TrEMBL record:
PANTHER family: GLUTAMATE DEHYDROGENASE (PTHR11606), GLUTAMATE DEHYDROGENASE 1, MITOCHONDRIAL (PTHR11606:SF13). PROSITE patterns: GLFV_DEHYDROGENASE (PS00074). GO terms for biological process: L-glutamate catabolic process. This is Glutamate dehydrogenase. The active site is at residue 115. It comes from Pricia antarctica. InterPro entries: Aminoacid_DH-like_N_sf, Glu/Leu/Phe/Val/Trp_DH, Glu/Leu/Phe/Val/Trp_DH_C, Glu/Leu/Phe/Val/Trp_DH_dimer, Glu/Leu/Phe/Val_DH_AS, Glu_DH, NAD(P)-bd_dom_sf, NAD_bind_Glu_DH. SMART domains: ELFV_dehydrog (SM00839). Substrate binds at residues 79, 103, 363. CDD domains: NAD_bind_1_Glu_DH. Keywords: Coiled coil, NAD, Nucleotide-binding, Oxidoreductase.
Amino acid sequence: MTTRVTKQKKQHKQGMLDNVMRQFDNAADIIGLNPNIRKILEVTNNELVVHFPVRMDNGEVEVFTGYRVQHNNALGPYKGGLRYHPTVDIDAARALAMWMTWKTSLAGLPYGGAKGGIQLDPTKYSNSELERITRRFTYALGDNIGPELDIPAPDVNTNAQTMAWILDTYMSTKSPAERSTNMHVVTGKPIGAGGSEGRDRATGYGVFLTIKFWTESKKVDLKDKKFIVQGFGNVGYWAAHFLEKEGAVLIAVQDAYGSITNESGISVEKLFEFSQANKGSILGFSDSHAIDNTDFFGLDCDIIIPAALGNQITAENAQHIKAYLIAEGANGPTDVEAEEILLKKGIDIIPDILCNSGGVIGSYYEWLQNRNGEIWQLEEVMEKLEKKLRESFSKVSEISEDRKVDMRTAAFIIAIERLEKTYVQRGIFP
Ligand SMILES: NC(=O)C1=CN([C@@H]2O[C@H](COP(=O)(O)OP(=O)(O)OC[C@H]3O[C@@H](n4cnc5c(N)ncnc54)[C@H](O)[C@@H]3O)[C@@H](O)[C@H]2O)C=CC1
Ligand SMILES: O=C(O)CCC(=O)C(=O)O
């Protein structure tokens, strides 16, 4: 059961979609974006909604709804993650797909933007149910994904195992010759199944690097700086891991289950071990005490890393923020109203499309290796990632200074101008 809609009209609604559209409009106004190109970029190219049945462990059948939104592919194949979460719906997928287009453009990658997922709470399903759900979703997506068309990757509640199931299912629909040459249909795979060294940590490492570049540019030493992290999954954990190695101190964490703090410091590795043994939850970690979720963002710290869901920093809690830097590991964690308040307070925000772009850059390296039959060592991947992120960070800083705009606006300007150039050069809208 498939609904395919082409060129969905722009919809303004509260939430992530509203935020990404306002961020886009702001930058498009500043550069005076060609109105025809604006019309193209403010809508999504394709939207796929699939309803598919899966047999549960108890023998009953449940019908799930999955999404894949392909926003734009002017610069290359669609690229972006798959999310398994109750909040996944068509607007969330649209917003996240648009952010992917700006992110890949800013990073200078030969990709467009897409995003998708399934509306479900994965904690309610067994591992074998999740495998069957993923495989049926992959069949339902069919040839709407592909190594040169649309390449999914991990996002919230999906991981290397999920990508391996997708790869295996996709391959089973192909001829023997195609099976050996289509490994790059997904990225973020386990290393034994065509994954790349370093993709697991690439997003968190990128978050850490952008913080490091920012502190270097402000002549601030990261040692002993206090940071807090919302979301202790792939992105939150790895960002905290690298910051701790640099001498910064983790003093509070919030996840889907609650918030904990210890002003003298929380060991990142001990908390990680604890959460792994505690079904992914940080609650109950001995070397800390629980605090109310509403007090989290107002804690006395230097750096905040939102690394969970969208719309977490709002006009309500932005007033209480004491940190001087927000590094957006998550996509869309700060809404437009909150950003205005934070900027007025002199708080800098490293925007998501720059801050968490290490993930898709790492995915690009995996895709390239699969495509070219190469295998790179971890050191090589990390070096390339650092070089690419440093270039992106420098460009954003330069535009931010030259045009006297905040870092998000600068990042959007770079991303949109690259897309504008490609349309103009192709002669579609001179
Ligand atoms: N995995 C990746 O490579 C990339 C992820 N991102 C973004 O980073 C964010 C986190 O993604 P992952 O770490 O991959 O997901 P994950 O599934 O590994 O971890 C998510 C974390 O967020 C927590 N969380 C969920 N709901 C929450 C809530 N309401 N309040 C507080 N915490 C909550 C979970 O408990 C978990 O600790 C997402 O916004 C994702 O789009 C961005 C770029 C790449
Ligand atoms: O690695 C990728 O292809 C995309 C990861 C992602 O979903 C994101 O950057 O938000």
